[in-house]
Structures are given as structure tokens and as C-alpha cells.
Design a protein that fits this description.
The complex is a heterodimer of chains A (336) and B (616). In chain A, β11 (240-245) and β12 form a beta hairpin. Chain A is of the alpha/beta class. Chain A is 30% helix and 20% strand. The relative contact order of chain A is 0.11. Chain A has a domain at 8-209 and 299-303: Rossmann fold (3-Layer(aba) Sandwich), CATH 3.40.50. In chain B, 37% of the residues lie in helices and 21% in strands. Chain B has an 8-stranded mixed β-sheet with strand order 8-7-6-3-5-4-17-10, sandwiched between helices. Chain B has a 7-stranded mixed β-sheet with strand order 12-11-13-14-16-15-22, sandwiched between helices. In chain B, α5 (144-151) crosses α9 (197-217), α8 (182-192) packs antiparallel against α9 (197-217) and α10 (243-258) packs across α11 (273-281). Chain B starts with a strand and ends with a helix. The relative contact order of chain B is 0.09. Chains A and B meet through β2, α2, α4, α10 and α11 of A and α1, β10, α10, α12 and α13 of B. β2 (64-67) of chain A pairs parallel with β18 of chain B, so a sheet runs across the interface.
């Protein structure tokens, strides 16, 4: 952290050109607010995106940035972070950019555990190409490229992240500034690849896709905010909770059937075993609430630190440290 | 050739081909032979010819690997079309490698591995493979395996480990045949097996047994001596280096000169992988190598590393270039420096993974969407890979552009004696960094006199900016679809490349009065030069213009190409370089020699073809 304090406006640049009401506007404001609170200088921050509506975001940031090519943001961000490990690197991708064309880079950045803040803006649609289904669109989804409904199942981003041995997964709704800022700060605090799934609306091609949690009053009913060390309680009046029922989760009403707050599960985001965290991340309505907040946050060695440590370790052991010395490690002969 | 002593013949040069199963250690034997020859001042050129199969069945025809060593009193330009000595450790080697023999070649075979079963594996029909193949050469038939085991009977080594030393017996025999310095070979073995002294001593024992066998039995009627030409001999400290290692060293040297961290993003691919292997060893030089999830990420991460302020490289072969094209193109429009290494192999698609071609030229020049100009360099020989890798980095960093360095399987795996360079003698590398006085007025696509935009590395205060794959306004750097601006930016990107200064192409041979100019590029230099030498030796007026800078072409290109009556462009593709030259030089209509066999050119074939053109 540097001594200078920042405000959101220090990270703002230009006039966003997204459609009015697009979730990207909300997210951008939250990101700038989070960055100000995090306090890393704009010139020590790089925001790297691929292609898509949300990938325009770096253009509106007063940081270093790249708006690159479709799907490759994670790979490009990887090189940037390894080459310049002092930078704080944010990767911005939509569901198409991050999980379709960029799926391979997404899983490997998680597996390697590069210290990137990987933002996945999920509106379950291709917006920039004007409305085709994405890898997160539900089965049967009708779009311009699936007029009779899709015949394929979607990815569930958390499942993909966990399957790739990801150590950090959090979720927020774009319209929920406080919830978004909170997970972005947690992502920054986490050393390693941090995936933040942002549920956001596309007003033009997929309006209402996250309707059950998009407005505060809906969220109260249909979402649960998970906090490490806190019981899993939700509902308009905090009347519901989650308990374990065999290998499954179960929603219970506190005060009914002898259930008290003590019976409710306590969230452990730091648990190495991701089984329960995955169950939480995959909860869906109407029977379950949608989990928001930091679902998994487990410390693990980062790739970039390990690279530096190995360089230091080998440098200590080896006797050659410049090109001329390298040459002399070979079998040589002299012609006189 | 002069007989200065009974049974010892002096020769100018000899080529020895060590062949056997992949696991027979033929490359080690060949390497030691070439190095001890170089030590006494001979020039050397080597080329391994290995199968695509990792471990084909023992003794099978597909499992034969070869290693050819060419040694000469004066400059040796190629590993040699044919060999003077063929070592065939089994019948499969004899069967597949005999084609590299002339009628005068001596053949050395291990009789212990020429038993009925071995002959069957090599698909011989009779018990006499020499008769069956009509071989009338001098054959030294020695029970190599059993003599090797006999030599080690008191060493305490088990049978299997003893047999593994048989390559040294063959080497010892060849050392006797060519009057080589055995103690130096012993020293090399002690270094190679420093951690296993008992193995070193066993190998040395067998090496001497091989030498003594030759000496005691007078295995050949004649032995040979290769003089070293003191007059033309280059003095200094040398090492044996192959092209891939030289390339890796060139990248390391350039990073050190530029004061930058070296980053390599790569994905394993034959025949380029050794560059990744080599660089991944040198952590003590701060080299960072990332074995990425795919070729795309290899190049994309290099683009990210370049943005981050490193000397960023990616290494691959042709199939990998297909995948990297997208990120290479991004580096073009973002004007970031990366070096893309293409170690060419046979194509299209997976093609011939271990073989050599020059078929990627048009791909690296043009294989991207949009107007996407990119400097292209091509290394002429194994040792030249060092210089060209260095220059590729210099051009990339000073002109803020991706650069393609082309080598090929032949120069990548071939080796030669290399005089150790002195880094202080290489030109400085000065990237166009932003300077503090630019703060406030600077924009990302502001250019210097060479048309190059400045480099503002993240972490530098006052220079935050965004780059990207979308067209940018030439002044503000903001996204722009303005037609005039796009036209301007397209021209600016092209002009930036056109302005790069490259050395003139040199004309070798009869540069004033040649009847025929031979033109080539990249890895064919040695063969074309040798062909020119042969033609000159027979009284013909011939010159050679060999190109290493492909884009931009040297300023004197048109002048050189138009100066001679006849020009032949010889290349290992169907005329890609000839086409590129015709695009750049008006009314240039050359003869062409095109061959795509996956093998280096044979000098004899070149001489024949060029002589026909000469006589037309």
C-alpha cells in the first residue's frame, strides 16, 4: 500500500459507451471505488481485457490497460504479471471471452495460480455480436443463433474454477455496489488467481436473466450473503438457514421443528476441501438461494512468487550470472 | 592427397556417419569425434538425422538414428552429402544408411548385432546383407559388443551397462582410423560423466580398446590424417554449438545488453523445443520461461510480458505459427516488441516434424489479417543463429515491433565450431523509452524520427495509457474508425518497418563477372556456398547472394539481382522467396531451383542443376 490515498475519480477516464442500464456501468463504478479503497496507484495497476462489450472497460480506466483479442486476456495478463510482478493486474472478460474462446486460458490461469484478479462479467449472452447464446446460457435458451432453443448444457463458472483447482471464487450482482466492492477487495487481498463472477443484466439481448437477484428486494428473498465464520442465514427477516442433510444442503426455517441458529452451518471459505463450497456455489432457485460473497478463499503458493523464488534459489547455487560466464560453462578449446 | 608415409593418407576433409538404434549413443560418439577434431584446429559441421519415433522397436528400420560429422582442414560449409565412413551398429542401420555411402566409403559394422534375428528385424531375406545389397565397399567387421563386454569384464559393471559402452568402441576405432587424439576424448568423457566416475572410466577403457583393436589388427589397409590449415585457421576460444542453443544464447545476450528481463512463453514442438529447454536452465541469469497451455498462450503471454516491460519471446515451428498469428498481429497493432522464433519443419499441418524445409516464409510475411507488416530475419547457419537472434531482439526493441526469426530443423540441430563472442563487441540495444520531460504531452502513438512509438512501461508514473487490438487515433490513441486515420495508421505501421536499416546483402565469389548469381536465404547458405565453390573450382564464373534479412530487404537487393546475366533462386519450397523478390524488384525473372524433401540440399544436386542453367 502506498501512502497516498485515492478516490474513485482517480481511476476514471472517458465516457463509457455501453447501452443505458447495462450492468457494465454498475460494475465499472464499483471497480473504481474498490481500487480507490485498495489504494494501489493507477500507474501500478494494469487492467487487461479481451473482446466483448465488457472488455471495453479498460478504456474507461485511468490505469495502464490493454483491450486485446478475443479470449486471450488471461494469457496476456499472465505474461504481464510474470514480467512485472509488482503490478496489480485485473483481467476483465465476459462469459464468451472468458469461458468459450478463452476457456483454456481461464482454467490454466486458475491451475497455475497466477496472482491475477480475474473478473467474469456473466450476462449469459453475446452482446457485441448482437445476441447469440453463450456458454453460460441455460439449456433451451432461445437466441438469434438458437431460434429453437439450445441443445447443450451451460458451464457453471464456479464448477469450472473449482475443477481447475481454483483457490478463490466470489460472486456479486452488478447492481449491488457494496457487495461488488467487497468481493473485489477480497480478490485483491487474496494472493493468487481470484475469480469474481459478476451477475449482470443485458438490457437489449437478455433482459432479466438474473431477475431473481437483480433488485435489492428480490435479493433479500432469493440470495444469501456468505461471510467466512458467519452462519448461513438468509431471508427477508433472516428467518432461513442452511443445514447439511446427508451429502446435500437443505433450507430450514429457524424456529420451526426445533431448529435454532446453532444448527445452521457456519461458512468456512478457507477450507482447503472445496466440496461444501462447491455445493454452495451451485445453489439455484427456486428451492435454494443464490450464494453471493466470497465462497472460497484458500491460501496457496502463487506461480509468480514461485518463479521469483526459483530464480533466487538457482542464482544462489549456480556460479554463472552473466552471459560471458555462461559461455565458460561449456566445453571449450583454444586454437592458438 | 599425398602419401607422406606408408599407409597413411592425408585428406582435406572427411565425413563420418555414426548410425544405430536411437539408444546406441551415436550422437555422443559423433560429438566427441567432432570436438576432438575441432580442438586440433579442424573446422567441423555436424547434423543429426533422428527418427520421429521416440523408441521404435530395437533393431527396426524405423528406429535408426544417424549423426553425421564433417571435418575439414579448412572451412567446412555443410555436414557433407555423403560419408567417407559409415558406422552401422546393426543391420537396420546398414540398410537405411548405405545410401549415404560412395563406392569408396569404409563401412564399420558390429558383427555381434548381425545375427539371424537382427537381420530378420531389418527385413533382410538372406544371411549375407552385403551380398543382398550388392555392397562392394571395404568393410571393417568387428565384434564390437563382445569386445566391449570383454574389456569391461573386471570393471564390476553389469552386462547391460557394459553393452551401453559399445559406442565408445566404435569411436575408438574411428579415432585410430583418423589419427585422433584419444586423451582429449578421455577428458571429455570424464567431464560428461563427472558425477559417475565409474561410468567415465568404463567408457574410456572401451574407447581405448576400440583404438587398440584398430591398431593391432590393422583393421583397415589405410589410415588417414586431416591436416589443419594454419594459414586460414581462426584463432581464439571455441565451443561446439547447435542452432537452437545458439538462438537461446542470442536471446540471453540481447536481454543482458538491453538491461531487460528475458521472458519466453512457449509450448513444446519439434524441432523448436530445445530452445525452451536451454532457456529454462538459466534461471541464474534471471531468464523466465513459461511452458504455456498452448501455442496461443505462448505468444499471447509474450505480448503481455512485452507490455510489462520485458524482452519477450515465443518459440515454435510452423504449426505453432498458425496459432500464434493472432497474437503476433496484436503485437503489430499495439506496436509492442516481441521476438517470434520459427524453427521450420516439413508441412503442411503436422507434416514432417523432424525434417527441414523453408516453407513458412510467406506465412510469416503475410499470414495475418489486415495489413500487418513484420520484420523477418533468417539465420544462415547454426552459429549464425546467435547473431540473428541478437539482431531480431535489437530490431524488435528499437522499432517496437514483433520480429520473426526463421531458422529450420537443419540449422537448429546441426552444429559447428563457434568462436566465443565478446558481448562488448555487439551493438548497443536502446529501446525508445518515454522520458520524464514527455510527461503531460505524451500520447501512446506519438512517434520518433524512425516512426517508432515510445515505450511507457507500466509502473512509470505519468504515462498510464491503453493499448489494444482496435484501430487507434494517430494523435490521441483513442479508438477510432475514422477512414482517414485508419489509412494514415496503416501507412505509418508499414513505413516504420520499411525504415529499419539492415546490412547490404554481400556477394560472394565472382562478384564482378559472374555468369550466374545463386540466390538463397536462411539455412541453405552452407550448401549453396559449397555448390558455388565447386563450380568455381571447375572454372565457371559464379557468385552467391545469400539473404538473412528478408523484410525489409537490404537496400542493394535490386542492384545485386539486376547485375548478373542469369540468376537462380534456390530454396526448399516451391518458390516463396523468388516470389517475394519478384514482388519487390521490378522485372526480375530468375531461374528457380526448388526441392522439398525434408533433407538439406545435396551439393552435388545443386551443382548439376546450376550447371545446366549456366550452360543454357
Amino acid at each position: 500500500m502506498e501512502n497516498i490515498t485515492y478516490e474513485a475519480k482517480d481511476f476514471k477516464k472517458g465516457q463509457p459507451r455501453w447501452c443505458p442500464g447495462c450492468g457494465d456501468h454498475f460494475f465499472l463504478a464499483s471497480l473504481q471505488k474498490a481500487m480507490a479503497e485498495i489504494g494501489v496507484a493507477p500507474h501500478n495497476t494494469a487492467v487487461i481485457s479481451g473482446i466483448g462489450c465488457s472488455s471495453r472497460l479498460p478504456h474507461y480506466m485511468a490505469t495502464y490497460g490493454m483491450n486485446t483479442i478475443h479470449g486471450r486476456a488471461a494469457a496476456i495478463a499472465t505474461g504481464c504479471k510474470i514480467a512485472n510482478p509488482k503490478l496489480t493486474v485485473w483481467q476483465i472478460s465476459g462469459d464468451g471471452d472468458g469461458l468459450a474462446i478463452g476457456g483454456n486460458h481461464f482454467i490454466h490461469a486458475n491451475r497455475r495460480n497466477i496472482d491475477l484478479n480475474m473478473i467474469l462479467l456473466n450476462n449469459r449472452i453475446y452482446g457485441l455480436t448482437k445476441g447469440q447464446y453463450s456458454p453460460t446460457s441455460p439449456r433451451g435458451f432461445v437466441s438469434k443463433s438458437s431460434p429453437y432453443g439450445t441443445v447443450e448444457d451451460p458451464f457453471r463458472p464456479a464448477e469450472l474454477c473449482f475443477g481447475a483447482r481454483g483457490h478463490f471464487f466470489a460472486r456479486a450482482v452488478a447492481t449491488d455496489a457494496a457487495g461488488t466492492v467487497e468481493i473485489l477487495k477480497a480478490a485483491q487481498a487474496h494472493k493468487g488467481a481470484s475469480v469474481c463472477e459478476i451477475l449482470q443484466n443485458c438490457v437489449i439481448f437478455n433482459d432479466g436473466t438474473h431477475a431473481s437477484v437483480y433488485k435489492p428486494e428480490e435479493r433479500k428473498k432469493n440470495a444469501i450473503y456468505l461471510k467466512h465464520g458467519q452462519p448461513m442465514i438468509f431471508g427477508e427477516n433472516n428467518e432461513f438457514g442452511l443445514v447439511q442433510d446427508g451429502f446435500n444442503l437443505k433450507v430450514v426455517k429457524i424456529g420451526e421443528n426445533g431448529i435454532t441458529e446453532k444448527d445452521i452451518l457456519v461458512h468456512d471459505a478457507h477450507c482447503e476441501d472445496n466440496t461444501l463450497q462447491l455445493k454452495l456455489a451451485l445453489m439455484e432457485g427456486p428451492d435454494f438461494p443464490i450464494a453471493l460473497g466470497v465462497i472460497r478463499d484458500v491460501e496457496a503458493p502463487t506461480y509468480n512468487d514461485a518463479v521469483e523464488a526459483q530464480i533466487a534459489e538457482v542464482s544462489e547455487k549456480k556460479k554463472y550470472h552473466n552471459f560471458q560466464e555462461l559461455l565458460m560453462t561449456n566445453d571449450t578449446w583454444e586454437v592458438k | 592427397m599425398t602419401d607422406n608415409k606408408q599407409n597413411v593418407t592425408s585428406v582435406d576433409n572427411i565425413a563420418v556417419r555414426f548410425t544405430g538404434d536411437s539408444g546406441d549413443g551415436m550422437q555422443l560418439a559423433g560429438n566427441i569425434f567432432s570436438t576432438i577434431s575441432a580442438t586440433v584446429g579442424n573446422d567441423i559441421s555436424t547434423f543429426p538425422d533422428y527418427p520421429a519415433d521416440i523408441r521404435a522397436p530395437q533393431g527396426s528400420l524405423t528406429g535408426v538414428s544417424g549423426f553425421q560429422v564433417h571435418i575439414g582442414a579448412e572451412k567446412v560449409l555443410t555436414p557433407g552429402d555423403k560419408c567417407d565412413v559409415l558406422i552401422a551398429m546393426n543391420p537396420a542401420a546398414l540398410k537405411t544408411q548405405y545410401k549415404f555411402c560412395t563406392s569408396r566409403s569404409i563401412i564399420i559394422v558390429d558383427t555381434d548385432s548381425f545375427k539371424e534375428n537382427d537381420l530378420k528385424k531389418a527385413e533382410f531375406q538372406t544371411n549375407d546383407p552385403f551380398e543382398e545389397m550388392g555392397i562392394k565397399n571395404e568393410v571393417i567387421a568387428a565384434p564390437i559388443t563382445s569386445m566391449c563386454v570383454e574389456a569391461l569384464k573386471d570393471s564390476g559393471l553389469d552386462f547391460k551397462s557394459s553393452v551401453r559402452c559399445k559406442n565408445m568402441f566404435a569411436l575408438g576405432l574411428v579415432c585410430w582410423l583418423f589419427d585422433r587424439n584419444v586423451p582429449y576424448a578421455e577428458e571429455m568423457l570424464r567431464q560428461k560423466f563427472a558425477k559417475k566416475p565409474e561410468i567415465a572410466e568404463a567408457n574410456i577403457k572401451v574407447l581405448n580398446a576400440g583404438y587398440d583393436y584398430g591398431h593391432n589388427t590393422h583393421a583397415s589397409a589405410t589410415t588417414y590424417r586431416i591436416e589443419s590449415a594454419n594459414a586460414t585457421k581462426q584463432k581464439g576460444v571455441f565451443m561446439d554449438i547447435n542452432g537452437n542453443k545458439a538462438t537461446a544464447y542470442g536471446l540471453i545476450a540481447a536481454a543482458e545488453k538491453a538491461g531487460l528481463k528475458l521472458y519466453l512463453g512457449s509450448y513444446p514442438i519439434t524441432p523448436a523445443t530445445d530452445v525452451l529447454h536451454e532457456l529454462s536452465k538459466h534461471k541464474s541469469l534471471g531468464v523466465t520461461t513459461v511452458q504455456c497451455e498452448d501455442e496461443i498462450a505462448g505468444c499471447a503471454s509474450a505480448v503481455g510480458a512485452a507490455f510489462g516491460g520485458a524482452l519477450a519471446c515465443t518459440s515454435t515451428s510452423g504449426p505453432g505459427i498458425c496459432l500464434k498469428s493472432e497474437a503476433m498481429n496484436l503485437a503489430v497493432i499495439m506496436e509492442l516488441p516481441i521476438v517470434v522464433l520459427d524453427v521450420q519443419r516439413g508441412g503442411p499441418a503436422t507434416g514432417l516434424p523432424t525434417k527441414s524445409e523453408q516453407t513458412d516464409l510467406l506465412q510469416v510475411l503475410f499470414g495475418r489479417n489486415g495489413e500487418s507488416p513484420m520484420p523477418v530475419l533468417a539465420a544462415a547457419s547454426p552459429t549464425d543463429c546467435f547473431d540473428m537472434a541478437y539482431m531480431a531482439c535489437k530490431i524488435a526493441l528499437e522499432h517496437m515491433t514483433p520480429v520473426v526469426l526463421m531458422t529450420d530443423a537443419y540449422v537448429a540441430n546441426g552444429s559447428a565450431a563457434w568462436k566465443l563472442p565478446k558481448l562488448e563487441e555487439y551493438p548497443a540495444i536502446k529501446p525508445p523509452y518515454v522520458t520524464p520531460d514527455m510527461k503531460g504531452s505524451w500520447a501512446p502513438y506519438q512517434r520518433n524520427a524512425d516512426g517508432v512509438r515510445y515505450w511507457a512501461v507500466p509502473g512509470t508514473e505519468g504515462f498510464t495509457h491503453i493499448l489494444g487490438g482496435l484501430e487507434k487515433d494517430s494523435k490521441t490513441g483513442a479508438i477510432s474508425t475514422n477512414p482517414e486515420n485508419h489509412n494514415l495508421m496503416t501507412h505509418l505501421r508499414q513505413e516504420k518497418i520499411d525504415k529499419i536499416q539492415v546490412p547490404d546483402v554481400e556477394v560472394l565469389g565472382d562478384k564482378d563477372d559472374a555468369e550466374l548469381l545463386i540466390v538463397g536465404f536462411g539455412g541453405t547458405y552452407g550448401h549453396l556456398h559449397a555448390a558455388m565453390n565447386e563450380m568455381k573450382a571447375s572454372g565457371k564464373k559464379v557468385a552467391l547472394a545469400h539473404f538473412k534479412y528478408i523484410n525489409p530487404l537490404p537496400k542493394n537487393t535490386a542492384e545485386v539481382l539486376k547485375k548478373y546475366k542469369k540468376v537462380v533462386v534456390a530454396e526448399q519450397n516451391l518458390g516463396q522467396f523468388a516470389g517475394w523478390l519478384r514482388m519487390k524488384v521490378d522485372n526480375f525473372v530468375p531461374f528457380q531451383f526448388n526441392e522439398v524433401k525434408g533433407q538439406p540440399f545435396a551439393v552435388a544436386d545443386l551443382v548439376k542443376a546450376f550447371t545446366e542453367i549456366y550452360n543454357k
